[in-house]
Write a structure and sequence with these properties.
It is a single chain. By secondary structure, the chain is of the alpha+beta class. The chain has one domain. Helix content is 31%, strand content 31%. It is built from two helices and eight strands. The strands form two sheets. It has a five-stranded antiparallel sheet with strand order 1-2-3-4-5, covered by helices on one side. Strands 6-7-8 form a three-stranded antiparallel sheet, covered by helices on one side. The chain is elongated and about 95 Å long.
C-alpha cells in the first residue's frame, strides 16, 4: 500500500525540471535581447523623428517666404536671394509691426552648406551680413532647384539647376542623414507671389 501511494503521487522528475529550466533560460535570453535591441534603437528613432520635424519646420518657413517673394535676385543650387515681404519694422530687425501695418520688402538669402542652412535678412540688394542658422543636420548642399531653369526639362525640379531670368517656382530638398541607415529626403516648393505659371 505504501508503494502504491508513493508511485501515484503527481510531480516532476529531475530531468523534466532541468529541461524546463533550460527552456526558460533560452526564452528569457531571447526576450532580454529584444528589449536591449529596442532600448538601443530608440535614441536613433527619436533622432530621426526630430530631424524630420525640424526639416519640415525649416521647409515651411522657406516656402512661406518664397510665396511672398517678388523676384529671385541671385540663385544657385545651394543659395537663393529673393525680395520678399516680411513682417518686420526694419529689414534684419527684431521688431514686429502692429496689426494692420503692411509688411515690408526685404532681401532674404538662404544659404545651405554640407551641414546646415542659414538665413540672412537685409535691405533689398544687400547680400552680406551675419546670417542666422535655421537648420542643422543636412548632408548635401544642393537644396534649391528652379522653374524655369537651364535644364532641357524646364518643368522638372528633381535636381538642382541653374535658374534663368523669370524664375516662377523654387523647389527645396533637404537631404538628412539617417542614424538607422540610408539618408532621408524632405522636399517641398513654392511659386513666387503673382507668378504666371504655364499650363
Amino acid at each position: 500500500m505504501r508503494r502504491a501511494r508513493l508511485g501515484g503521487e503527481g510531480g516532476f522528475t529531475l530531468i523534466e525540471l532541468l529541461v524546463a529550466s533550460a527552456m526558460s533560460v533560452v526564452l528569457l535570453g531571447a526576450i532580454g535581447s529584444m528589449v536591449v535591441s529596442a532600448v538601443r534603437t530608440q535614441p536613433k528613432l527619436s533622432k530621426r523623428s526630430q530631424n524630420i520635424t525640424t526639416a519640415r519646420w525649416a521647409l515651411e518657413r522657406m516656402t512661406r517666404e518664397i510665396r511672398n517673394g517678388l523676384a529671385v535676385d541671385k540663385a544657385s543650387s545651394s543659395s537663393v536671394s529673393l525680395r520678399t515681404y516680411v513682417r518686420r519694422t526694419a529689414c534684419g530687425g527684431n521688431g514686429i509691426p502692429a496689426g494692420g501695418t503692411a509688411a515690408i520688402v526685404c532681401e532674404v538669402t538662404y544659404t545651405c552648406g554640407t551641414t546646415s542652412c542659414t538665413r540672412l535678412e537685409k535691405e533689398p540688394g544687400v547680400y552680406t551680413g551675419t546670417p542666422t542658422t535655421i537648420f542643422e543636420g543636412i548632408d548635401n548642399p544642393s537644396v534649391f532647384c528652379y522653374v524655369p531653369s537651364t535644364s532641357a526639362d524646364s518643368l522638372s525640379c528633381g535636381t538642382a539647376k541653374t535658374p534663368v531670368t523669370g524664375t516662377t517656382y523654387i523647389g527645396l530638398t533637404l537631404h538628412i542623414p539617417n542614424p538607422t541607415g540610408s539618408g532621408l529626403t524632405v522636399s517641398d516648393g513654392a511659386s513666387l507671389r503673382n507668378a504666371t505659371l504655364g499650363n
